Amino acid sequence: MSAPGENLRINGDRLWDSLMEMAKIGPGVAGGNNRQTLTDEDAEGRTLFQKWCDAAGLTMGVDTMGNMFARREGTDPDALPVYVGSHLDTQPTGGKYDGVLGVLAGLELIRSLNDLDIKTRHPIVVTNWTNEEGTRYAPAMLASGVFAGAHKEDWAKAREDADGKSFGAELERIGWKGDEPVGARKMHAFFELHIEQGPILEAEGKDIGVVTHGQGLSWTQVTITGKDSHTGSTPMPMRKNAGLGMARVLEKVEEIALSHAPNAVGAAGHIDIYPNSRNVIPGRAVFTVDFRSPDLDTINGMVAQMKSAATTICEDMGLGLEFENVGGFDPVTFDEGCVTAVRNAAERLGYSHRNLISGAGHDACWINRVTPTAMVMCPCVDGLSHNEAEDISKEWATAGADVLMHAVVETAGIEG
Ligand code: HGY
Ligand code: MN
Ligand code: MN
Q: Quick check: helix, strand or coil at residue 364?
């Protein structure tokens, strides 16, 4: 495969302007974004992305899960396309760059190829995967998971949000249900640029993360039931306090994760308590335990330990207990050839780099099941993400997009 010209660089100012333009859609309350999947804000962001793709001469396809595919023709129309992209949906208190950088850097490399009138043999397709975050609709990476055959489409479309609105109904409502059968597209390779969402690259002064692996994750939804009763008049020994039961289980989650340090993490980010009234003993607690590790046995071991501890706690307290698996995927080893293309690109461009295991899950983790896949990462300030204060520099974004372009173009093959 021919390597692209040394002078091939993206337009960092134009990329940054596009990031700032997209960040205006679904603003948060502290400088970040709240552009949750299948909301009107998500629809607005999709429309802006579609407008930019039209202006770049791309042909847009949308599948029945709302995944967007913007195609730039190659010189060989029969060659399978090289895909590049990430997600435009955000956390409720999300940053401006998580996911968005990967989609808009994919668009920027197309814009730069257009500027330089560079053709590639394989077509290139820029992708926006629906519902990567998994906040409104669990699990995370839902639509890329359906695309990769990890989830059934009907099951995914039946997922409901906290207000009982289904994924399928909301996708129709915002007008982004496409007609392409999900998963029908075949790929030559897939590359995703993403902020690290951790502290390593910044701490080591590295420009680029060459992502060799991704942690696996398990999401177990735990429901503890006790008895609503008066916080004043109910004697302590008579209480069935589901909130207290949850607190004891969450202490155990922390202990279990720390017992598998340094390659394991655990917490509960989603917690609902009922009836959540100041003077009522909580009768029900529903929370999702998020365990992660690069090692599958460690993940499964932590889940088993948590279930055993929760069972003992609830038996001792006379509380009801239910478990439901609401998401997960195995640890990922990315494709050697694609990882090498990323590493070669960083070397060629003179960017400092190091191998990295992704702590967060990404659409690339599922797409790696159906095509050779790799990720490029750039640093983020203090490693902070899933927080409105998430921040990166234009230089980091530009370096990541330059490496993404070289890896994609090298894989797609420059023509003429
Ligand atoms: O949960 C994750 O790792 C991703 O940010 N959705
Ligand atoms: Mn993301
Ligand atoms: Mn995220």
A: helix
How many angstroms separate the alpha carbon of residue 314 from the centre of ligand 1?
A: 30
| Interatomic CA distance for residues 273 and 391, integer angstroms | 32
Divide the 416 residues of the chain into consecutive groups of 10 and give the mean pLDDT of each group.
Answer: 67 98 98 98 98 98 98 96 98 98 98 96 98 97 98 98 98 98 98 98 98 98 98 98 98 98 96 98 98 98 98 98 96 98 97 97 98 98 98 98 97 89
42 Cβ closer than 6 Å to some ligand 1 atom: no
Across the chain, how many H-helices and E-strands are there? 12, 17
- How much distance in Å is there from the Cα of 409 to the middle of ligand 3? 27
pTM, entire model: 0.95
Pair 45, 35: CB distance under 8 Å:
yes
Q: Which tens digit of pLDDT belongs to each residue from 274-295?
A: 999 999 999 999 999 999 999 9
Given a contact cutoff of 8 angstroms between Cβ atoms, the answer to whether 282 and 276 are in contact is yes
The DSSP 8-state label assigned to residue 236 in this structure reads G
Nearest atom in ligand 1 to the alpha carbon of residue 134 is: 6
Under a CB-based contact definition with an 8 Å cutoff, are residues 230 and 279 in contact?
yes
Q: Are 95 and 390 in contact (CB under 8 A)?
A: yes
**Dihedral sign, CA of 196, 364, 128, 149?**
negative
Which candidate, 87, 90, 85, 86, places its Cα nearest to that of 26? 90
- 197: CA distance to ligand 3 center in Å? 8
Q: Which ligand is nearest to the CA of 100?
A: 2
Q: By C-alpha distance, which of 226, 216, 217, 345 is closest to 269? A: 217
**Nearest of 87, 117, 324 to residue 222 by alpha carbon:** 324
* CB atoms near residue 304 (< 10 Å): 11
CA distance 207 to 400: 8
Give the CA radius of gyration of the chain. Answer: 22
